[in-house]
């Protein structure tokens, strides 16, 4: 071997080494990008057992609800990493062979029109109703709900004075129709765009009672340091389902996923882990105050 060949051989070895390092780093980066992301959720079942056609390949895009701990734990789509409905979505994604869940903002009114795009399913504590089913499709129910009555602590509420209360309801929800048609209050309910606005109105004395899903108002009362309480509920027989647009190809697949999570105990486990500790009470034990 000549003296001039040694530097050339050394350079060649260096080039080969650098090329190998670049390939390895590229592989690591690609693997990291493709890594599964289901937040803090434990996913179970058989991966890829159900097929979904999603708006973003490899991703389940879900419309959440903000400000409802237990269901979606976090203040923004970027910070939510667990909760009953988030982990329900994570299990759906995993069983459909997808790698991640992405949360997308859409207003409640938008999704109820059936025209909103860019999401695969809304898991947003949405009550299944006949009129809504004319515009959008609902999955099989995954939770039974009704309407809780949240008031300032010490407020007297019974069947006799239901009609005299000033109520707050969220725009587009079934609570408005129930209050107007069944309770028939002397003052029309005040309508708000979201739950935080209702709670603010209650704290300011603008309304006497917030009517919202019992699990959610129980949570609000628990976190109020004794300032608020749930004095009763309207037993409306409501059930929550996932919402998809009429043109979604995934309704049957989502139904299959929900049924499998009911049968194998996944939904029951999620409820025990995320809802019971958060709510501080069993929603079914809240007294019924139907008018």
From TrEMBL:
<feature type="signal peptide">
    <location>
        <begin position="1"/>
        <end position="34"/>
    </location>
</feature>
<feature type="domain" description="Solute-binding protein family 3/N-terminal">
    <location>
        <begin position="65"/>
        <end position="278"/>
    </location>
</feature>
<protein>
    <recommendedName>
        <fullName>Solute-binding protein family 3/N-terminal domain-containing protein</fullName>
    </recommendedName>
</protein>
<dbReference type="InterPro" id="IPR001638">
    <property type="entry name" value="Solute-binding_3/MltF_N"/>
</dbReference>
<dbReference type="Pfam" id="PF00497">
    <property type="entry name" value="SBP_bac_3"/>
</dbReference>
<keyword id="KW-0732">Signal</keyword>
């Amino acid at each position: 071997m000549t003296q001039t060949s040694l530097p050339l051989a050394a350079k060649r070895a260096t080039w080969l080494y650098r090329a190998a390092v670049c390939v390895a780093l590229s592989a690591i980066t690609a693997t990291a990008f493709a890594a599964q992301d289901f937040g803090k959720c434990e996913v179970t079942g058989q991966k890829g057992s159900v097929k979904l056609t999603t708006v973003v390949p490899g991703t389940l895009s879900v419309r959440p609800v903000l400000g409802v701990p237990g269901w979606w734990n976090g203040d923004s789509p970027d910070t939510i990493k667990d909760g009953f409905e988030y982990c329900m979505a994570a299990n759906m994604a995993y069983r459909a062979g997808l790698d991640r869940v992405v949360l997308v903002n859409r207003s409640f009114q938008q999704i109820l029109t059936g025209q909103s795009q860019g999401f695969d399913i809304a898991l947003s504590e949405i009550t299944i109703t006949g009129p809504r089913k004319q515009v959008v499709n609902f999955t099989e129910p995954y939770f039974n709900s009704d309407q809780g009555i949240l008031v300032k602590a010490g407020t007297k509420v019974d069947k006799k004075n239901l009609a005299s209360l000033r109520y707050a309801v969220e725009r587009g929800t079934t609570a408005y129709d129930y209050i107007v048609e069944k309770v028939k209050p002397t003052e029309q309910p005040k309508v708000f765009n979201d739950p935080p606005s209702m709670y603010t109105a209650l704290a300011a004395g603008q309304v006497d009672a917030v009517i919202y899903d019992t699990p959610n108002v129980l949570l609000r009362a628990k976190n109020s340091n004794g300032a608020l309480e749930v004095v009763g509920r309207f037993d409306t027989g409501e059930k929550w389902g996932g919402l998809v647009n009429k043109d979604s190809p995934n309704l049957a697949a989502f139904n299959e996923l929900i049924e499998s999570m009911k049968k194998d105990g996944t939904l029951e486990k999620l409820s025990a882990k995320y809802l019971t500790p958060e709510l501080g009470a069993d929603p079914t034990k809240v007294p019924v105050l139907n008018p």
